[in-house]
Structure formats: C-alpha cells, structure tokens
C-alpha cells in the first residue's frame, strides 16, 4: 500500500494566509516537542514531514478568522504556561485511560461548561457522520484513517471521534464558536469536511486527486 503521507510536497504559494497556516503548524510542532509521553518519546514526535502534511491539510480547510483565532489561542497558551497539544492528548485519556485521566489530568486542565460540551458533541456527531460517509466512498483511503468511534478506542488506538473531542476541548470559546459556525456552514451547503481535508492531504502527498490516491493504495 502506498503511504499517502510520504510522497513529495509541492511548493506552496507565498501569501499571508499561507504564512499564517505555516506558523500555526510550526507552533503546534514546538508544543508537541514539549509533550511528554508516558512510554517515552513517541516516534511521531520526530517526524516533522508527516506532522506538517497532516496538520497543514486540516488548516487548509479553515478561513482567516478561524486561523487567526486559533493562532491567538496558541500564543495565549504560551503566555500563561499551557501547552494545547499536551492538553489535547490529555483530554483523549478520558476515553483511553479514564483512571489516569481522572487522577492526573482532569484536575489540572480547564473545565468545559455543560453548554460547551453539548455544542461540541453536536459538532462531533456531524464530523463522525462525514468521516463514515468518506470511508464508505473511499474504502482504501479509509483503511489508513483512525478507527472511527470512541467505542472502538483501545490503549493502543485512539479513534477519530476521541481525537476530535480532545482537540476541540482545547479551543477558546471564541475559536470554538468560529469552528462551530464553519461546521454548520459545511452541513448547510452539503460539503464534507473529512473529504476536503483528505483531498488536501493527498495533494500535499503528490497525488492529483482522491481517485488517484485511492487507486494507489
């Protein structure tokens, strides 16, 4: 199977939005390097090309206000001594390691309001639906994705749903509201954010489109 993350990366246009996306990916990478893994340093913490490709593909689906808001979140986290990447992985442990989460993580991260949690869960349900639809239409590419739902989590595998829940939980209220609006807009116009993100991923990997990437798997 051809790894969709391993082919060449095309040159990027130089503009303000491109620069902002690149700064965000680099900022996340810097926080990732300061994230301690219980079993020691993870192999992915040394793989900048794949990290860059996967995170940039996500941010290529975001508009300027959302990018600006998230960049501000990262800056504010640095200012107050937080690490949003560490918190993201910590929040995932609510599913993958609940005892350790309750003891070692939950007391030390910001608590989300009931309203915020409910809004996040509506967003997550929409995105899980999109991911399921994508996997049905592009089964070979789907094999390379995470397992889909929190019910499938194990100590060794974290699902798309749990990963998304962890990430959304790190956004400020202002940034989450922008993200929530983006998801609502995609839903209203019949667009699938998973499909758009994977399309960017395979293009960054040197493929022309999803058909070509699917055939190469």
TrEMBL record:
InterPro entries: DUF4125 (IPR025191). Pfam families: DUF4125. It comes from the Bacteria. This is DUF4125 family protein. The lineage of its organism: Bacteria, Bacillati, Actinomycetota, Actinomycetes, Bifidobacteriales.
